Structure formats: C-alpha cells, structure tokens
Amino acid sequence: FMIQGGDPTGTGAGGESIYGEKFEDECSRELHNFRGALSMANAGPNTTGSQFFIVQNSQAPTKDIDALAVQVACYELLNDAKRRVQQMQEALEDAPKIQAYIDEVNARLNEYQSEGLPEEEKVYATEIAKKYAEVGGTFHLDFAHTVFGQVIDGMDVVDSIANVRTARGDRPMHDVTIDSIEIME
User: Fold this and answer.
1) How far are the Cα atoms of 36, 38, 104 from residue 150, in angstroms, in the given order?
2) By CB count within 10 A, which of 73, 95, 108, 154 is most buried?
3) Could you tell me the residue ranges of all domains in the chain?
4) Separation between Cα atoms, residue 70 and residue 96, nearest integer Å
5) How confident is the prediction for the chain on average, in pLDDT?
6) Could you give the CA distance from residue 110 to residue 176 in angstroms, rounded to a whole number?
7) Which helix (H) or strand (E) covers residue 104, if one does?
8) Which strands make up the sheet holding 52-55, listed edge to edge?
9) Model confidence band, residue 70 (pLDDT cutoffs 50, 70, 90)
10) CB-CB contact of 125 with 69 (8 Å)
C-alpha cells in the first residue's frame, strides 16, 4: 500500500532528521494520505526522523461513501487522540484526567458508530471519503503521519517500485534508489 525510503542505515530503523533529533508531527485537516501522498514515516506520535513513504494504494476499502465517511472520521479522532494522550503523559498530567479524555473519545466513537456523524463532521468526512473512493489511499494514516507533498506525475514509477520482489521484512531483494525528484510549487 506504500513504498518507503529515507533510511540511510538500510536497516529500517531510520536515521537522524535534518534537525538532529526526532520532531513533532504536523497534521492538518487539509492534508490526507490519498494515493501519491508523500508523508513522513514514524514509529508513533512525534517520532519523525528521516524516513518517508509514498502512498501507492489505488483503492478504498469500500465504495459505500457513508460507511467510508464514518471510518475516515473515526481514524482522524483516534489518531489525534493518540497524539494528545502522549502529550498529556509527557506533560505529567494525572491519570484521572487522561482517563477522562480517553472516555470522552470512546463515547464519541460509539456515537459515530451508533448514531452517525454530526452534520458538520459528516459534510467534511463525506468530502474526504469521496476523494478516497475516487483515487485510493490510506485514510487510516491520516493524523498519524505528516503529509508534506504529493506525486503529481510519475505514479507509474511508484507502482513499479511497489512491485519489485521483496525479501524478509518486505525489503526489496535489490536496493531501489530514487535518483532524482522535481519539486513543483
């Protein structure tokens, strides 16, 4: 569903960021992991280093837009909650306050599943779901990874890289190198 690169060690463990240390995720409701999205890989909230991935998946898990909209909204809520809980833990918030937040998130998720999305959220999530149904992507990664670019031309190259033979750990049997890119504004 993606190709990944940017690991100078070649081990999959990643390398140092240009800042010298891991940095915070930057997520936005305007940027999503549609097919061709260029995003930062990480090992959890705020652990971004040198690795990146390009979303290759060309299909949504369902063409049912209403069901897909609920999934989009739920993953956005869950991924944002993971980041917030980590921030609360790092700020040494007390356990009851963290648990109250988790309970609030769970109540919203249950409401989404049983009663559907609130109207404003439904409009937003439906628009995003339609785009995923049209072009594919990995909506479950929204709000978990920083999206910072989009492949405009050359998805055939991404598809070719995704189809190379792989060995253990889903690593290509032979190194694949991206020799150049063009940045368009």
Assistant:
1) 5, 5, 34
2) 73
3) 1-58+136-185, 60-134
4) 29
5) 88
6) 44
7) helix 95-115
8) 2-5, 52-55, 37-40, 147-150
9) very high
10) yes
Residue 150: both structure tokens together: 């989009």
How far apart, in Å, are the Cα atoms of 68 and each of 44, 72, 96, 147, 175?
24, 6, 33, 20, 36
Gap between the Cα atoms of 11 and 144, Å rounded:
22
Tokens 């980041």 locate to 83
Cα–chain center distance at 61:
15
How far apart are alpha carbons 6 and 52 in whole angstroms?
6
Residue pLDDT, tens place only, 91-110: 888 899 999 999 999 999 99
Find the helix or strand (DSSP H, E) in which 75 lies: helix 65-90
Residue from 43, 34, 36 nearest 7 by CA: 43
Segment 30-59 shows an average pLDDT of: 88
Helix or strand run (H / E) with residue 37? strand 37-40
Which tokens sit at 125? 């999530």
Fold of 1-58+136-185: Cyclophilin (2.40.100)
Rounded to whole angstroms, the Cα distance separating 158 from 6 reads: 15
Reading phi first (left if > 0) and then psi (alpha if -120 to 50, else beta), residue 160 is in: alpha
Model confidence at 21: pLDDT above 80: no
